Amino acid sequence: MPLSLNDIQFTILKNNYDNNPLVIYGLYQGIIGGPNIRKSAYTGQDVWRALKNNAIEFINSNRGTYGSDKSSDVFQVSSLYDRNRSYFPSFNAGLSAHLMEYIQGPEKTMLSQADTLKPDINDWTITSLSGNYREFGGSLADSNAALLDSVSSTVISNNAGPGASTLGASVGYGSSSTASKSLVYDRLDPDLLEHLIEINDKRKATNALNSSVTMEELGEFPVESKVEPKEKDKEKDKDQQE
Questions:
Q1: What is the pTM of this model?
Q2: Domain ranges, ordered by start, for the chain
Q3: pLDDT for 174-227, tens place per residue?
Q4: Where are the beta strands (DSSP E) in 97-206?
Q5: N or C: which end of the chain has fewer CB within 10 A?
């Protein structure tokens, strides 16, 4: 029977694991705004620990949650939760209880005081193997939370480590026209970025090895003199006579 990704996510996994929302943190989406991809595969022994670690990382990043002092009644969360509403039958209450298990720092207080959860944090930028070496002009995030530090990078530093960049233009919260055309390079988790760059380096090395062609100048082959059969026979007969 054919299965779709939705069948796996919202039927098989959801039903077989008692609607446990930790499942959604194990489904890598290939975008910065989603949960991280792990360096190692899930195993039966560590799957729940690994999913919990993914949840903690995601929830405590500005990709997952964002609280603002300006609006204490509303707490912003990732649109990932909106796409997975079936895991939270009572969206506000169920999701709030889930987030409270893992959220840390001042956002925990903001979450507890909020009346409404607003799932409007988005970042559809693809997690390219090229890491932070991207071209300008692409759309990145469409929410205020994406501008957590009110700064976007405009110049890449080739000498810096993974995730590093040179400071560019400063933009304020809510400056959507600037934000939609900017790239915030520190949105990607540094460990994930380093891992992706490592994979890309291996891919380049493998491609170079498999696609390399060795050329050498062979020059001229020495030509062996050929003796006609009759001449050979004559020499053989002569030797026998002698």
A1: 0.56
A2: 1-122, 128-191
A3: 333 333 333 444 445 677 778 878 888 888 887 777 766 566 655 555 555 555
A4: 116-121, 151-155, 166-170
A5: N
